[in-house]
């Protein structure tokens, strides 16, 4: 049932009118009030599915802490991190201590063998750079929103796409992986690549983690924006926290074929079909081609809105577990081809499991930092976390579509220090070391490079040598203060990773 007009809907015969009104009101005020422009600004669901008590709204699913809740005396006894609502018990430099639980956004999560989130990462939760007015990520988000609001309008004149930009980054493993059909043995689930609170909960690795819940909520066209968390290498273009925007559009048979000649004779689905590189086994080829055309046209218009009408684009076939066929979009910018997003026709099994069996659709995802660095000429991803007014002031524009090119701050000289060690016999990954360096060195660390490795011919022990580049974004570092940080990294690597130092 559409929350605004009451049209559409399915399987509501068992609800009384009073129950239906109550459920609409609860869902409207619980979810729709979180859209960026408030309750009355957009059409929330053109033809929604039945209103249920959804995982999206359950505290156990997303662990949202209402804004009016304040820390309990017990919570205040924890060592608070720099941002309100994020705390961890005891010394917080590494997850190897004897703490029993982790607190994130007002929820406690009991530690287990999967817990690998660090205090440094937890300190980023709740920053929500994409919601800070005049931040470059906010600026880009607003430009994309404005494009979708203007380009897609429903029958009543309201924007077709709703926007969700403050869903909790704490999700279940089922939401992050299972709901997207990512196999249990898929490499993307590794502890080495993700931040786990425990075996069942994690910091989302992509905004796609909310896809199934929002479809189950009855939404057919929506954008999700949020911070995502991945353990990764350290350089100017990688950071363990970054921001994504996810888009989904679903079509019924009538919506897809309504404007096609003899469209009443066409169908979304077929029985007895087979999967090919062009389509899924349940989709008709006609439906896939129309959905694919709509997807590519939508994203081409978006990129031309951002880069300019003369932009040259191309599509590259690829693979994602949750779409088929799947594509990456590349744009030609300053003489080079740049990948800007991934997209595809949604796997029908995913759509069916979310209660939209009579629809098919497309989805896309893009990284806000990646686009902002290209569009605004920002050279280092750490700058997005800067509170230096010389950086932020450059993005205070009269209008969100005004042109802006980042003017570099004074480039302070780097300092480099090497660290060499023998690896333990097992259970060592490079991302463990990168995460340890991040936890201790923070944003002083500009880059970590593996510059040498060898295997001892007799003992077969493996040695790694890393070069750590330190550079402060706002002042000159001294070798003395860098050496203190570097020695702390050396000590922690031996204690926490089991390496044997060669320094």
TrEMBL record:
Pfam name, any one: FDX-ACB
Compartments, record wording: Mitochondrion matrix
Aminoacyl-transfer RNA synthetases class-II family profile domain sequence ranges: 226-408
Keyword Manganese: no
Broad class of enzyme this protein falls into: ligase
Any Gene Ontology biological process: phenylalanyl-tRNA aminoacylation
The family this protein is said to belong to: Belongs to the class-II aminoacyl-tRNA synthetase family.
Function description: Is responsible for the charging of tRNA(Phe) with phenylalanine in mitochondrial translation. To a lesser extent, also catalyzes direct attachment of m-Tyr (an oxidized version of Phe) to tRNA(Phe), thereby opening the way for delivery of the misacylated tRNA to the ribosome and incorporation of ROS-damaged amino acid into proteins.
Name of the protein this chain belongs to: Phenylalanine--tRNA ligase, mitochondrial
């Amino acid at each position: 049932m559409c929350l605004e007009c009451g049209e559409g809907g399915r399987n509501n015969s068992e609800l009384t009118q009073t129950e239906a009104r109550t459920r609409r009101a609860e869902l409207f005020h619980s979810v729709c009030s979180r859209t960026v422009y408030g309750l009355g600004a957009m059409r929330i669901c053109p033809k929604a599915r039945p209103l249920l008590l959804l995982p999206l709204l359950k505290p156990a699913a997303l662990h949202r802490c209402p804004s009016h809740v304040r820390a309990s005396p017990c919570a205040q006894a924890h060592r608070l991190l720099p941002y309100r609502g994020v705390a961890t018990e005891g010394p917080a430099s590494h997850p190897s201590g004897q703490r029993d639980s982790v607190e994130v956004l007002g929820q406690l999560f009991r530690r287990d063998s999967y817990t690998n989130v660090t205090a440094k990462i937890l300190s980023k939760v709740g920053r929500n750079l994409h919601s800070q007015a005049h931040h470059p990520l906010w600026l880009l988000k607003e430009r994309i929103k404005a494009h979708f609001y203007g380009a897609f309008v429903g029958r009543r004149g309201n924007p077709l796409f709703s926007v969700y930009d403050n869903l909790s980054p704490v999700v279940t493993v089922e939401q992050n992986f299972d709901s997207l059909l990512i196999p249990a043995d898929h490499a993307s689930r590794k502890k080495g690549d993700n931040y786990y609170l425990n075996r069942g909960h994690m910091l989302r690795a992509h905004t796609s983690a909310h896809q199934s819940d929002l479809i189950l909520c009855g939404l057919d066209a929506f954008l999700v924006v949020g911070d995502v968390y991945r353990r990764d290498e350290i350089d100017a273009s990688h950071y363990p926290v970054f921001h994504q925007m996810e888009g989904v559009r679903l079509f019924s048979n009538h919506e897809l074929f309504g404007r096609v000649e003899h469209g009443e004779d066409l169908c979304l689905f077929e029985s007895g079909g087979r999967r090919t590189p062009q389509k899924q086994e349940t989709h008709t080829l006609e439906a896939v081609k129309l959905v694919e055309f709509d997807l590519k046209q939508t994203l081409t218009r978006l990129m031309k809105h951002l880069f300019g009408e003369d932009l040259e684009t191309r599509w590259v076939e690829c693979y994602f577990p949750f779409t088929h066929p799947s594509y990456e979009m590349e744009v030609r910018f300053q003489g080079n081809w740049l990948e800007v997003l991934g997209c595809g026709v949604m796997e029908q099994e995913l759509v069916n499991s979310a209660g939209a069996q009579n629809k098919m659709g497309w989805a896309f995802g893009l990284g806000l930092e990646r686009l902002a660095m290209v569009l605004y000429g920002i050279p280092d991803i750490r700058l997005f976390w800067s509170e230096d007014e010389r950086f932020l002031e450059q993005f205070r524009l009269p209008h969100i579509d005004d042109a802006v090119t980042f003017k570099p701050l004074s480039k302070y000289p780097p300092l480099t220090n090497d660290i060499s060690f023998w690896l333990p016999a097992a259970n060592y990954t490079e991302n463990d070391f990168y995460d340890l360096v991040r936890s201790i060195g923070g944003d002083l660390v500009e880059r970590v490079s593996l510059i040498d490795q060898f295997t001892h011919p007799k003992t077969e022990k493996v040695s790694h040598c890393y070069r750590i580049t330190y550079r402060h974004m706002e002042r000159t570092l001294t070798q003395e203060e860098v050496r203190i940080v570097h020695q702390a990294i050396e000590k922690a690597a031996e204690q926490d990773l089991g390496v044997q130092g060669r320094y």
